[in-house]
Amino acid sequence: MDFSLSEEHLMIRDAARDFAKTELLPGVVERDNKQEFPTEQVKKMGELGFLGMMVDPKYGGGGMDTVSYVLAMEELSKVDASCSVIVSVNNSLVCYGLEAYGTEAQKQKYLTKLATGQSIGAFCLSEPEAGSDATSQRTTAIDKGDHYVLNGTKNWITNGNSADFYLVIAQTDKEKKHKGINAFIVEKSWEGFEVGPKEDKLGIRGSDTHTLNFNDVKVPKENRIGDDGFGFKFAMKTLSGGRIGIAAQALGIAAGAYDLAREYSKVRKTFGTEICNHQAIAFKLADMHTSIEAARLLVMKAAWDKDQGNNYDMSGAMAKLYASQVAMDVSVEAVQVHGGNGFVKEYHVERMMRDAKITQIYEGTSEIQKMVISRGLLRD
User: Fold this and answer.
1) Does residue 363 have an active-site annotation?
2) Residue 192 and which of 73, 236, 255, 339 are 20 to 30 A apart at CA?
3) Cβ–Cβ under 8 Å, residues 82 and 38
4) For 202-218, how does the pLDDT look when each residue is reduced to its tens digit (9 = 90+)?
5) Helix (H/G/I), strand (E/B), else coil: 157
6) Which of 74, 333, 363, 367 is catalytic?
C-alpha cells in the first residue's frame, strides 16, 4: 500500500494549482455575478492539455491516468468550479465515451478535436421526465435506413451553448425499453438543432447550462455509438467514470473553502486574539480537515480502481456520495468561520457554498449513488 504521489503526479498537480491561481482566480467573482462563460480560460486549458488528459496521445490527448486527472480537477475546483465542470464533462463523459466505445472514424473526426480543446463537448442524457430515471427517454431517434431522425428535448446540459459536439441519448425502440436506447454524436450546426434559454442557477454560474431541442435532426448512421441498443449501457458506463470527476470537483470545493477559512482564522481577531486560538474555531478546522482527508482517500481509491482496470461502480459512487456531502458541510462551515464576511462575495466562500450543492445532484443524485452502492453490496 503506497499513498505517495509520483513525480509526474506532483508536477500535474502543481501545474493545475498554478493555472488556477494565475488564470482562474482573477475575475472569478465577476464571472459568477455575470454568469459569464470562461471562454479565454477554457481556451488556455485546452492548450495546456486539461481537456483531454486521459485520451491516448495518438488522438491528441495527454495519455495520463485517472489519478492525474482527479489531482488536476481538485486544484481547479479549489478556485473555480464553473471551469472544472467544463473539464470534467469534456474528459469524463465526452472524450472517455468516444475513446472507449466509438469507431476509429468517430475518434479521428471528433475525439482529436475534443482532446486538444479545439472543440468542446456536451453529454445529453437528462430530460424533463428523465433525470435520475434515465430509462424514461422521451427523445426519439427513428431509424430511416441510412440515418436517424432525432426529436426531443434535453435539460440541464453543461456546455449547452458552448459545445460543438453533443453525445445524445435517445429512444429508438420503445418496445425494447432500455434495450432500445441508442447514443448519437450530433453536431451543433445541423439543421433542426436548437439551443434553448440559459438556466439562471444557484451555483457554477460561469458554466452555461441550457435546454436543447431537437426538431427532425438528421443523424447519419455512422454517428451512432456502438451497436443498436447500446445507448443505455453507454450512458451508465460513462457516468460511472464521470462520478469520479465530480467527486474530485466536490473535494476541491471543500479543500478550497477550508484553505480560505484556515487562513482567515489566522488574521481575524476577536477577544484579543486570532480566532484560530478559540477552541470553537479550532475544532471546526479539525473536523473540516479530517472529512476532507477521508473524502480524498475515497476519490483516490476510485481513481486507482479505474486505472487498475477494476470495477469502479461502487468506489466511484461512494466517492461522489461522500465528497459531495463534505463539500456542502465544509463550505457551510467556512462561511461560518468568516462570520459576516462569509456572506460577502469578495471572500469567495459564499460562492463555494453555492457551487457545492450541485455536486449532490448532477451525474447522479446522492440518492442514486446510494442505490448503486446498496445494489453492489447486496448483489452476492
Assistant:
1) yes
2) 236
3) yes
4) 999 999 999 999 999 99
5) strand
6) 363
